[in-house]
Amino acid sequence: MPTDESMPKKFPLWPGTPPGVRGKYDEDLVVVANCHYSYRDGDNYVLVDSETYDQVEVTAESIGPQVVFLKEGLEGITILIWNNRVFGIELPRVVELEVVSLVHLEEGRIEALLESGAKIVVPERVKVGDIVKVDPRTAKYVAPPGH
User: Which three-class secondary structure string do you get for 16-56?
Assistant: First the structure.
């Protein structure tokens, strides 16, 4: 996330925050909800507004550590723009990704490499090829799909 001095210091990051709570920066905030991840273009990630089909290029720095959970076609992304600059995105609270490999760690823990490149710890019952649910905010396994 940019560390520019012009960025507000006490700006809430969640677009669901009631407008009256956001404070004096409301007029500068643009929230583009209901976007999906389309593709990577060099160092940028292209997100598309699912209603207008407008494309927004976002840097990995603007996305933050959640970047490893992006998968082409991922829907439900919210883009946060302040002063005409993207300063963050919010992924859905749960993303579903395929397990492509497993590594057994100490103490019976298993690390899964997901199709997006993310690595998470999963239960022993998870197998290669399984689709798992992950909370991208915490990088934690949530459950297998359907649960």
Answer: CCCHHHCHHHHHHEEEEEEEEEEEEECCEEEEEECCCCCEE
